């Protein structure tokens, strides 16, 4: 059931529902800890889909969790970007590319419109723009599936990076212990 609910969610991973992503929100719905009307990006259509799946009445969107907005994408004002990489770290689907001290850019078709890149930007060079018309041919389900794959790939990459970092730290500790033992 969690997977079915998660599949209906927009996969923006924005956290507006008060959970740290779409899957945790789906888990909370199943556990009875969240209601079906807490997802601003899912909107009324998402609430209807969840109600149909769960066999419960459709509810009005709960404005405590934000406001429903038209789909949008992040846009970086290039001349203002200082290359701090804070937006890259914040993006849950790796839709922002760039390097430290260099200008960044958003891959618009990959952006979920979560707005998580806005707050960490120290120079406010990121703005949200309406979703371009060339994305209109992609269905809501296709967009969600793509965003889910990108989010899961990012999570796997982050896990791998953490494991590699831990392994490097372990190797350094072992080398230090060998040096200290040799000095004795």
Distinctive features:
single chain; 184 residues; mainly alpha; 3-methyladenine DNA Glycosylase II, Chain A, domain 3; Alpha-Beta Plaits; two-stranded antiparallel ribbon; two-stranded antiparallel sheet; 5 helices; 4 strands; globular
Write a short abstract of this structure.
The chain has helices spanning 2-8, 22-31, 43-54, 86-90, 140-183; strands at residues 72-76, 96-97, 105-106, 126-130. The protein is mainly α and 184 residues long. The chain is globular, with a radius of gyration of 20 Å.
Give a description of the structure.
The protein is mainly α and 184 residues long. Helices cover 42% and strands 8% of the residues. The chain has five helices and four strands. The strands form two sheets. The chain has a two-stranded antiparallel sheet. The radius of gyration is 20 Å and the shape is globular. The model has no long low-confidence stretch (mean pLDDT 92).
Strand content bin: 5-15%
At the fourth level of CATH, the homologous superfamily of the domain at 2-65 is Electron transport complex subunit B, putative Fe-S cluster
Model regions low in confidence, pLDDT < 50 over at least 5 residues: none
Q: What class would the helix/strand composition place it in?
A: mainly alpha
Largest sheet: 2 strands, antiparallel
